[in-house]
Amino acid sequence: MSAPATTGSAGTAAPATTPAEPRRIIPLAFRAAGVGLPLLSVGAAVGFSANNDPNAFVTYAVTMTAAVTAAVWGLWGLVDRRLLRASETLSREAGLIAHGTADGKTGARIPLARYGDLAPVAKAVNELSDKLAAARRDTARTVAESTAKAEEQKTRLAAVLRDLHEGVLVCNLKHQILLYNQTALDILHLAGDLGLGRSLLHFVVAEPVIHTLERLTLRVREGRHVNHEHGTTAQFVGATTDGHILLAGRMSAILQDPPEGSDELPTITGYVITLSDATSELAALGQRDALLREATEGFCAPIANLRAVLETLDDTPELGPEERAAFQAALMESSNTLSERLARVTNEYRSVVTGSWPMSDIHSTNLINLIRHRVGPEAQYGVTLTGLPQWVHGDSYSLVILFGYLIEYVYALTGVPAYDLSVEPGDSWVYLDITWRGPSVPSGIVDSWLDHPLPDALGGLTVGDVLQHHKSTMWSEPVKGPGSEGELLSRLRVPLPPALKPPSAHTAARGGARPEFFDFNLLHQPLATSELGRTPLDQLHYVVFDTETTGLSPSTGDEIIQIAAVRVVGGRILTGETFNTLVNPKRSIPAESIPFHGITDAMVADKPTIDKVLPQFRGFVSGAVLIAHNAAFDLKFLKMKERASGVRFDSPVLDTMLLSRMLLGEGGDHTLDGIAERLGIEVVDRHTALGDSLVTAAVFLRMVEMLKERDVRTLDDAIRGANIIVELAARERAF
């Protein structure tokens, strides 16, 4: 224990006793021992030698040993009592002071006189105690001020949330509830509290919430939230777990910004959901749907009857000409009126139904990947993503459920184990197709599916309801497959509305087209002169690739910073089988090149180097014919890294730029954008390595059909024609 000494000014203790006196004891004791022992030694030696005692040396040794032992033990006792024990007590008192509290200007005190030679240490502890007390007072004051501000903000937030007409819930990524308002309780019809930390999915059907969070996560991960119309928010329709209440919701992602100066994308740490009770609204919508369906489709039979009567009258010759004419005119007028009314009501009905359902722009790749995820790996059939991506407008959750259901029913009907999912742009629609090898589904069966309720759909939606929300329909038809054999395939086609904004609004255009490169040693290839060379172009296995680089000159130090590729088999772009990776160039990326590819130093800092990437890429392209646009540019970079990576790129290569010159002549635009525009290929997600690979693949598949018309049918034919173009270009350069 310590009793506080009298203090003067804060932090300075008034001396209660003078510590100088005790400080002399230990030094004096050591001095006395240091002087006394030599004097004793000399005196004893003189005394014993004067007595002429034969045992004088032994007596001297014993005497001096006893004297030294006594001196050592005396000094040790003094040090132990004055220093060691005092320091132990001092440390304990310092510990008490560290764990104590102080409300005054100074902290707890240690009496200096109690510690003798350790008085300076005790004084330093007192000074630290004063500073600790001051720090505690500052901390307590700051905590009190922050608590008061937090309480004030909490009160304001509570007042705002209380006055909102929508339920608000804040959740983390584990769907645990962190905050909610009273309106949320009222909407969910819950008595008492939701309980902080409980899972939202205990009260709300999980699928729409999880699906919406997946959509936002993909949007943020790909950086699309920056230019997206709805930013980091998305609408959804949900329900309580008991199914009694339908909910209209909006989810907003809570983002954590990356470190300042970093080019990394933010990450989602949680989300805010606003809910409103849509039970009565959607119930009324269902009743209205039923009423309008009766009012529209119910007209069909009366109109058919009217027209049947007209036909009957035509077949009844007993009526006079005037009566017949008047009767026919009246019936025809009524029939036309009903037909016009039916068309008008039907259009208005579809417009109202579509406008009342929450929709948003969706990237087709994300939509199809969600469909594949719903089908799952345990299914007895597989789903392959093919074709170029597009943007559509719709309710992604109901569309995912719809297409998962349709694939399952087609499989149950046909037993076909493999299906392609693709999108194809049209004049005013984007067609989402389910394609398979086998017989098509009869139209009567397709129509019968319209009344089937969809599992996991909210509000008991049927197939027909989802299609009507999108102003859509569906049909099954046979189609000619790709390739020279023209295999007969079947597809189930569903037209969807295009995105409200054009695709260009979703992808920021970067730099202009890459200049044309003619490395004649790389472009002039030997013929395959094997079975591969005689294989028809539409039966080959291709890998279409593209690179992004720090600059345009590999011989002066420019490096690959991204390489991507997509597989093309049987005339199908296998969008789900891609290679795409960033590469650390081990050098800085010039600022002037960033607008062309959008890749920064921070994005590649932790990526593998080219000697690690190229063996993986070589494995991906193994056994395939390589396709690239302006291929000499990309091949130059690959060839220069063959020795460092320990691989060789000796596969045949076709260049769509050379093929374009072969087909269209030297004049005109032979850039990738120019060719795609002339071929009517809609370009989405351009100016990335993978996006350019996809567009190049679509361009090449269109060229295959055009090459057949020029009697270019095999790989050797295409290489021979490309070599001619290269030789002509070389001669032009020579002149």
Automatic annotation (TrEMBL):
It comes from the Bacteria. InterPro entries: DnaQ (IPR006054), HAMP_dom (IPR003660), PAS (IPR000014), PAS-like_dom_sf (IPR035965), Ribonucl_H (IPR013520), RNaseH-like_sf (IPR012337), RNaseH_sf (IPR036397). The keyword Hydrolase applies. Pfam families: RNase_T. Keywords: Exonuclease, Hydrolase, Membrane, Nuclease, Transmembrane, Transmembrane helix. CDD domains: DEDDh (cd06127), PAS (cd00130). The chain crosses the membrane at residues 28-50, 56-79. It catalyses: DNA(n) + a 2'-deoxyribonucleoside 5'-triphosphate = DNA(n+1) + diphosphate. DNA polymerase III is a complex, multichain enzyme responsible for most of the replicative synthesis in bacteria. The epsilon subunit contain the editing function and is a proofreading 3'-5' exonuclease. This is DNA-directed DNA polymerase. It comes from Azospirillum himalayense.
